[in-house]
Amino acid sequence: MINVIVELSKYVILTLMVIYTFHCFYLVKQQSEEERNESLRQQLMLIFFMDFTAFLVIYLKTGKFQVVLFYIEMMAFFAGIQILYRIFYKKASILLLNNMCMLLSVGFIMLCRLDVSTATRQLVIVAGVNVVALIVPVLIRKMKFLKDLTWVYAGIGIVLLAAVFVLAKTSYGAKLSLMGIQPSEAIKITFVFFMAALLRKGADFSKVVQATVVAGLHVGILVLSRDLGSAVIFFAAYLVMIYVASRNVGYLALGLAGGSAGAVVAYHLFGHVRQRVTAWKDPMAVYQNEGYQIVQSLFAIGTGGWFGMGLCQGSPEKIPVVKNDFIFSAICEELGGIFAICLILVCMSFFLMIVNIALKIKKPFYKLIALGLGTEYAFQVFLTIGGATKFIPMTGVTLPLVSYGGSSVACTVLMLAIIQGLYILREDEDEEIERYRRKGTAQRVEEAPEAQSPGDF
């Protein structure tokens, strides 16, 4: 009986995910307020039923009461964050909030299936950082001096990265963390704020040079620390923000050429880079060593097929570091390729929402922040999924909100809180424009000469 429930559940979960994904893009269309609110409520119901089905299956297969406790705690967290945002931020983007809850749900399902204690630690971190993140949107609205801290952001980033390079121990071939914290995740935010503050009044040659020097220091230290994934993310954000601020294709071309040359130099200088490229080119040839991870990842993806094997029916634990770097492979194995494609589309919807917010913001500082954070998010998703599927060499970064990792999930939640603040700012700008428009219309009506009746002639 349990096996029948497991087999049916994967189709139920897949159907709910497909409908949710459709809603993500359907909500982009212009709708009435009532229709939009109804669609957002339906999204919440889809998340609820997906979580209920998944955790029921995990409990039936494992028999662990901790799964039930975790499910109750997780649903309490989701209910709390939804209610609090609606109370404190009437203008917040509920679609952005729903997408965050959906991606967290997928992560919690897979982490709980792999290890309940790991999922519990992730939930505690997520709940704690969301309490802090609740004040971020109001800080973005009120703290006007953020645009004046240009070199403070640069100094914080360079000092913290240098400290990691000097003091951190090597883990999985790279220097990543100090005292269990990965500073590069937080520096993604400070780096974007530095670039936005520097380029907010334009991108003349001197400012481009300054931005390039600071970005080069960030990326260079990360490369020396062998944190290649983060280095690529920083470089991508730098290129996009320079191009948007200057609108100069030449800068973009020079940046791409410099990045390509830097990649070649890194390949010849660092054995760690050569190992990853070798594993990417022909993982079966080095299956016992460098290629083991990627081969197991490809086996998992192939085994899952389109519809997956069902929760607790696969063997994702055979993939090394599956909870961090290769959780996408575990999702493909047990929930299927169609579910994984929907997950990618939800992430794409996330990115498009951020770009839409950036395009509508009038103030350059906030516009650049939105574009920079959106670029970092999109590239992190690309690097994680690309590495797991052998589309690109493995870079060792996590899938935002889905993979296990305290620093990663905490900084992603804070990043989304900043985006919420920018969305609210955009709503404020729209209201202000509408207010001025109405005021101007009323003033023109008052100043217009009174219409003369026929008796006046």
TrEMBL record:
<feature type="transmembrane region" description="Helical">
    <location>
        <begin position="12"/>
        <end position="28"/>
    </location>
</feature>
<feature type="transmembrane region" description="Helical">
    <location>
        <begin position="338"/>
        <end position="359"/>
    </location>
</feature>
<feature type="transmembrane region" description="Helical">
    <location>
        <begin position="211"/>
        <end position="244"/>
    </location>
</feature>
<feature type="transmembrane region" description="Helical">
    <location>
        <begin position="92"/>
        <end position="111"/>
    </location>
</feature>
<dbReference type="GO" id="GO:0008360">
    <property type="term" value="P:regulation of cell shape"/>
</dbReference>
<feature type="transmembrane region" description="Helical">
    <location>
        <begin position="291"/>
        <end position="309"/>
    </location>
</feature>
<feature type="transmembrane region" description="Helical">
    <location>
        <begin position="368"/>
        <end position="389"/>
    </location>
</feature>
<keyword id="KW-0812">Transmembrane</keyword>
<feature type="transmembrane region" description="Helical">
    <location>
        <begin position="180"/>
        <end position="199"/>
    </location>
</feature>
<feature type="transmembrane region" description="Helical">
    <location>
        <begin position="40"/>
        <end position="59"/>
    </location>
</feature>
<dbReference type="GO" id="GO:0005886">
    <property type="term" value="C:plasma membrane"/>
</dbReference>
<feature type="transmembrane region" description="Helical">
    <location>
        <begin position="65"/>
        <end position="85"/>
    </location>
</feature>
<keyword id="KW-0131">Cell cycle</keyword>
<feature type="transmembrane region" description="Helical">
    <location>
        <begin position="149"/>
        <end position="168"/>
    </location>
</feature>
<keyword id="KW-0472">Membrane</keyword>
<feature type="region of interest" description="Disordered">
    <location>
        <begin position="436"/>
        <end position="457"/>
    </location>
</feature>
<dbReference type="GO" id="GO:0015648">
    <property type="term" value="F:lipid-linked peptidoglycan transporter activity"/>
</dbReference>
<dbReference type="InterPro" id="IPR001182">
    <property type="entry name" value="FtsW/RodA"/>
</dbReference>
<protein>
    <submittedName>
        <fullName>Cell division protein FtsW</fullName>
    </submittedName>
</protein>
<dbReference type="GO" id="GO:0032153">
    <property type="term" value="C:cell division site"/>
</dbReference>
<feature type="transmembrane region" description="Helical">
    <location>
        <begin position="250"/>
        <end position="270"/>
    </location>
</feature>
<feature type="transmembrane region" description="Helical">
    <location>
        <begin position="123"/>
        <end position="140"/>
    </location>
</feature>
<keyword id="KW-0133">Cell shape</keyword>
<keyword id="KW-1133">Transmembrane helix</keyword>
<dbReference type="GO" id="GO:0051301">
    <property type="term" value="P:cell division"/>
</dbReference>
<dbReference type="Pfam" id="PF01098">
    <property type="entry name" value="FTSW_RODA_SPOVE"/>
</dbReference>
<feature type="transmembrane region" description="Helical">
    <location>
        <begin position="401"/>
        <end position="425"/>
    </location>
</feature>
<keyword id="KW-0132">Cell division</keyword>
